[in-house]
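Hi team,

As requested, here is the filled-out complex form for the iron/sulfur cluster run. I kept the field names the same as last time so the parser does not choke. Let me know if anything looks off before we queue the next batch.

— J.
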Amino acid sequence: MTRPDELAPRARTWPELAAVATRCVACPELAAARTQVVVGTWPPGARALLVGEAPGAREDETGVPFVGRAGGLLDELLADAGLPRERVAVANVLKCRPPGNRKPTREEIARCTPWLARQIALVDPLVVGVLGGTAAAWALGRQVRIAEARGRVLELAVSDGGTGRPLVVTYHPAAAARFGRYGGPMAALREDLRLVAELTAR
Ligand code: SF4
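And here is what came back:
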């Protein structure tokens, strides 16, 4: 049994963390069902870190977070905001795909948190952007309505990951896409990514 809480704090670099995390079997059900652990992407020098919920089928297949339709949309919106994906680190609250894309359980999130907390400490981003309800609840330590939490700078409330670090909460691209390209959530997501870009420029 892997102990992320013991192993993650020992990683001194993102590649070092990735090498250990890819062998993690702390959640037996997820470890048995996944194709691979999706650790995240970190272009060296990235000043923003975006966090989603968990890998989906395409991510599980490719090992890269936010690919497929939601990823393509995210890439497009980031480019529009003046913050190309190549300059952003991206990870998920959970690093393994839950079978059938079910919601991560509270226990799985707790087990996986040391990896992400350590990634945040290693990237040391000027801002963390969280996409969707699961990531927002993780970052704030409580359930929130995205519509109420978005559009302003909050503070990350994850110990070891830099409590008090600037945080922007917004919609998950897949959720925003459900309301259409010209819907309110898409406009909000655009605006929030621009805020993330502004914070990285300071
Ligand atoms: S979800 Fe996280 S803690 Fe669970 S097995 Fe995957 S990497 Fe390990």
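Two things worth flagging: Strands lie at 48-52, 88-92, 127-131, 154-155, 166-170. Residues 4-200 form a domain with the Uracil-DNA Glycosylase, subunit E fold (CATH 3.40.470.10).

Thanks,
J.
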